[in-house]
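Example S7 (structure tokens).
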């Protein structure tokens, strides 16, 4: 990116953007230019396609640095060699980038005309990022996930409904992994006499509130697995239906009969054996998937990922990549204390890391000084108290550490 070495160096450029926006997500180009010793116009001119390519290359290199925390001693998770979550978040971009990163259409609140979709594979016991891929906001999760490496034997794989695919689930089993998945409303199942019926039609006939049985899903493709389902209380079912109607209205559609039925049930499928994992344990394990949603929420609320005061296409794209790098630094810092599933709030740990952003940036060229700063940060994190336990609505962490699951 740097063709003539003058005031700005490549390292200085990247570090200033990353740590400047990590310290203050609302920082202006004037603020960052002062740090680099250049004018607003001089820095703004640097935020072009070459700078965006440079920053993305740093992102891909950074994700290969496998920072990890020591896993918590959780017996339920120790039955697996690792627990990985695949998930995507969409980030809006200016319309001028629609050809490079086409959006999802006018109904999407963040990436209507242009945007990119970030796919992350997150190992939740240690906090490692095993892979990170980008695509256009229009790309489906099932398309992006094909770029990820195979899961290792003994891994539990969790993903949202957008990743549901018969072939991918079967592939994970063949690779020696295990999986838990939600089910789409249009899913069909094979009956005892070999005919096909809708899964929701079958659920409507059930007179029991808890189901745990083997099932064969699909019409043209088949998937033999285990289905676990719990009928939800009326109040929760009505709330889910209201949320469904609200989301469907934004898209100019109304819920189908099948979707209405699924609002009344919590339904999961898995290849985990019934003699090793109870119905309650399956539901607790799937709740772990929410950790990546919380991760994305911290990135957007604390680090400002997806928000920009700029309007020029590559200026916004550069800011997006720089803030994503800041999110990685923020997350790595939290691992100095413990992993995502510890009793210490990850949100509060991330806030502490951001307070050290300027000190870390200042010490980057001096390994001894950097160790001192990191040591002070670690000491601050280790003084943080554990989160209070909730008796009424136990958190996922509490459930993993032995609390009882209620529905």
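Recovered sequence:
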């Amino acid at each position: 990116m740097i063709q003539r070495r003058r005031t700005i160096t490549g390292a200085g450029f990247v570090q200033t953007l990353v740590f400047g926006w990590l310290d203050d997500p609302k920082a202006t180009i004037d603020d960052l230019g002062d740090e680099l010793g250049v004018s607003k116009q001089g820095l703004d001119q640097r935020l072009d396609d070459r700078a965006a390519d440079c920053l993305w290359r740093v992102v891909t290199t950074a994700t290969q640095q496998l920072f990890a925390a020591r896993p918590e001693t959780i017996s339920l998770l120790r039955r697996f060699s690792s627990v990985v979550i695949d998930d995507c978040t969409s980030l809006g971009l200016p319309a001028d980038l629609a050809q490079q990163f086409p959006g999802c259409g006018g109904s999407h609140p963040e990436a209507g005309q242009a945007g990119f979709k970030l796919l992350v594979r997150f190992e939740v016991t240690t906090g490692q990022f095993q892979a990170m891929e980008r695509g256009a906001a229009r790309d489906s999760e099932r398309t992006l996930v094909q770029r990820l490496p195979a899961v290792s034997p003994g891994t539990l794989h969790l993903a949202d409904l957008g990743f549901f695919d018969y072939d991918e689930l079967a592939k994970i089993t063949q690779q020696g992994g295990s999986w838990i998945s939600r089910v789409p409303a249009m899913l069909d199942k094979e009956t005892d006499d070999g005919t096909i019926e809708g899964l929701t039609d079958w659920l409507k006939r059930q007179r029991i509130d808890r189901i745990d049985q083997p099932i064969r899903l699909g019409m043209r493709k088949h998937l033999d697995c285990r289905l676990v389902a719990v009928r939800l209380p009326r109040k929760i079912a009505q709330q889910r239906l209201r949320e469904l109607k609200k989301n469907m209205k934004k898209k100019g559609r109304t819920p189908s009969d099948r979707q209405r039925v699924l609002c009344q049930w919590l339904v999961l499928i898995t290849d985990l054996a019934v003699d090793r994992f109870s119905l309650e344990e399956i539901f607790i394990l799937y709740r772990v998937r929410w950790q990546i949603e919380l991760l994305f929420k911290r990135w957007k609320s604390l680090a400002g990922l997806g928000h920009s005061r700029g309007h020029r296409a590559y200026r916004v794209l550069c800011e997006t990549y720089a803030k994503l790098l800041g999110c990685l630094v923020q997350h790595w810092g939290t691992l100095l204390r413990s992993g995502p599933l510890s009793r210490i709030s990850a949100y509060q740990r991330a806030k502490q890391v951001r307070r050290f952003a300027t000190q870390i940036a200042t010490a980057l060229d001096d390994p001894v000084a950097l160790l001192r700063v990191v040591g002070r940060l670690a000491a601050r994190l280790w003084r943080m108290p554990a989160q209070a336990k909730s008796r009424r609505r136990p958190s996922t962490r509490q459930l993993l550490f032995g609390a009882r699951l209620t529905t």
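Notes on this example. The beta strands are 82-92, 115-123, 128-136, 155-159, 178-182, 188-190, 196-198, 210-217, 223-231, 265-270.
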